[in-house]
Amino acid sequence: MKVLINKLIIKRLKLITVSIVFANIFYTSAMVAPVLSPLATTTDAIGQSLQNTMIWASSETKGEAYFVAFRKSFQIKVPRRLTTLSLFADVRYMVWINGQYALRGPSRFEPTGPEYDSMDITRFLKPGSNVIVVVVMANAGNGKMRRHAPGLTARIDIKGRKSVITDESWKWSDKTRYRNARIDWGNTHDRIDARVEDGDWLQPGYNDLQWKKSIKIDGNQWGLLTARRTPLLRETPVSMKITNSLTLPVTLIANQKLEFKLDRLTQAYTILEIDAEKGTEISLDYAGIQYIAKGGKQTYISSDTYGFAEGSVTVKSGRATINRIQLIERLYPFDIAGSFKSNDQELNRLWALCARSCQVFSEDSYVDCADRERTEWMDDDPPAFNITRTAMAGPGKNSQKVYADPRLLGALLRRTALTVQPEGWVKAHTCSDRFDIHAKMEDRSCDWVEGARRYYESTGDKKLIREIWPVIVRQMNYFLKLRTSRGLVLAREWEVWGNPVGYVTCEGSGLNAFIYKALVDAAFLGEAIGENPQAAEFNKAANDLKMAFNKVLWNEKDGTYYSGYTEDYEKAKGGRKVNLPLVNNLIASTIFPALFALDQGIVPESRREKVMNYLFTNRDQADRIMTFYYLFPKCIGLITPLLIKKSLIRCDRNGRK
């Protein structure tokens, strides 16, 4: 039961106002100073080769979220095994070989730490002339990609020998159906106009004489390019049921639609085959895609995936026959390896729901939801990796399974380290230009350090810990510089939805408990990799913080902890409505300081029973699902399955209450 409840929470949705600050786009063929990574140095021979062969279309800006297609013809006498394509593009790409769709990517990345993909492409090749086409979306940013210099680099190796590289012989065109897309926080919504094309440029026989030659650009605009650290995503056809009494093929005219449902929530891209009148306007309503058809038969593949469980395709104007619509789920290649069964059918259903949710929320990273954000937050780790360890297995070498697959967690830790700011703090979410109130979330930095320890204890992988160690030190020192004369850290509270002092800048109980645990974890990791002097400093800082916490914030009368200390309550609140009283500069107690203090291990054994009793007496305050997530491991006797079920009432298929 404890294991189950500890895994029930995949991610709380963050009800936030999206505010994205975009950097200016730049790209150049001139040499620039190398982009330096904040991490310990890693090297990669193929990555270095790719970095030296970056190309792009021209030095002209083409608006936001624009697409450029690149083509390269090459000869192969006899296709052999182990013909490998390695490539990277900023910011997104799709690949076709001899007219067949092959791959899309890359994995989400910080520009200081990009990763290239590799794939065996032998099955797509034929003797004689072959053609590779790469469509790249550039100058776009949202919650999973950063606006940055555009670029493409690729190489094809036949039995380990380099055969094809990106250079000026690659041709490019922006005269494709993929027009400037609409970008929101979680998704790319294609704007398609097939009328601009003069033929099928995916095919080897297409005449590309009107296409222009590419130019070389400087790969130093990115940090060191290294191999992808997680497997390529699995692509699986999804069955759909048409619900409005139609069968394929079906001809639709203006304002008619095809409606469908799926058995469950999916994360999928679309393949659409139609025969249409020129200028017919079609809307893929479930994905926010607008399509203007050329005359005749045509096939379209969406550039992004979308989270949905039902949808419709509407002909806005004109006439089109839908011959085929295929949905392809694209997720991390997890298989559900664990199982749970009890005599409580509701718990059985919840276990299955959460296991499936972990699958849907595992793309090229753990993400917070399947539709609105799809963002990698630092605190995606505790729920998602806990479920991974309990229920999931990923693919390994020689068809072996990797149980409790740690690779998504490892990638999250590394990408988070790459977000480190000049002051020393890491962002709350990765691969995004967003810098608003949720860019810097102090407790999420503590989650990151705790996640690094969880990763190390699960894998014994010292290499990654050494790589991110410089940033762990910077983050911990950032906190230590914020200590007051009372020995507590003065920063912003958050931790969990429902915390009455969330967003209040004070010497808060919740955040200081989190920082204490992060210092303990940092010391543990330092000792593990031989950084003993620094580890000793963190151990001492943790002990000092624990003493200050239990001296300043202890509420003897109620047997618990105050919510925080502040000398200027109105300034601390920052205009937010906080209804807790203030006495002698101490903010009144709630269930949350006790909860976080127990969870982070800062409560002395002599006070543990009192704090537990306070939680029991005030357990009705535990009315949010993430409260139970923190509460259950430490306080198993204080809640019941009935209380848990009450917190899970009526979640819809997208996971919202």
List the defining traits of the structure above.
disordered C terminus, 11-stranded mixed beta sheet, disordered N terminus, Jelly Rolls, 657 residues, alpha+beta, 14 helices
Care to describe what's here?
The chain is an alpha+beta fold and 657 residues long. Among the domains are: 45-228, Jelly Rolls (Sandwich), CATH 2.60.120; 236-331, Galactose-binding domain-like (Jelly Rolls), CATH 2.60.120. It has 14 helices and 34 strands. Strands 11, 12, 16, 17, 18, 19, 20, 21, 22, 23 and 24 form an eleven-stranded mixed beta sheet that branches. It is globular and about 80 Å long.
Number of strands: 34
- Helix fraction by DSSP (H/I, runs of at least 4): 25-40%
Q: From the alpha-carbon coordinates, what is the Rg to the nearest angstrom?
A: 27 Å
Sheet with the most strands, sense and barrel status: 11 strands, mixed
Distance between the termini: 23 Å
Strand content: 25-35%
- Named at the architecture level, the CATH assignment of the domain at 45-228 is Sandwich
Name of the CATH class of the domain at 45-228: Mainly Beta
CATH domain fold name of the domain at 45-228: Jelly Rolls
The named CATH superfamily of the domain at 45-228: Galactose-binding domain-like
* Number of H- or I-type helical stretches: 14
Low-confidence stretches: 1-32, 636-640, 646-657
What is the average of the pLDDT values?
89
What gross morphology would you assign? globular
The assigned structural class equals: alpha+beta
Sequence-ordered SSE layout with sheet pairings:
Blueprint: H1 2-7, H2 45-51, E1 55-56, E2 66-76, E3 83-90, E4 92-97, E5 100-105, E6 115-120, E7 128-138, E8 151-158, E9 161-165, E10 171-173, E11 178-183, E12 188-193, E13 212-213, E14 215-216, E15 226-227, E16 234-238, E17 241-242, E18 250-253, E19 256-276, E20 281-284, E21 289-292, E22 296-301, E23 306-317, E24 319-331, E25 335-336, H3 345-360, H4 381-391, E26 392-395, E27 401-403, H5 407-417, H6 442-459, H7 462-480, E28 491-492, E29 505-508, H8 509-528, H9 532-552, E30 554-555, E31 560-561, E32 564-565, H10 569-573, E33 582-583, E34 586-587, H11 591-599, H12 605-617, H13 625-634, H14 641-647
Parallel strand pairs: 6-15, 12-21
Antiparallel strand pairs: 1-14, 2-7, 2-10, 3-6, 3-8, 4-5, 4-7, 8-9, 10-13, 11-12, 16-24, 17-19, 18-24, 19-22, 19-23, 19-24, 20-21, 20-23, 25-26, 26-27, 28-29, 29-32, 30-31, 32-34, 33-34
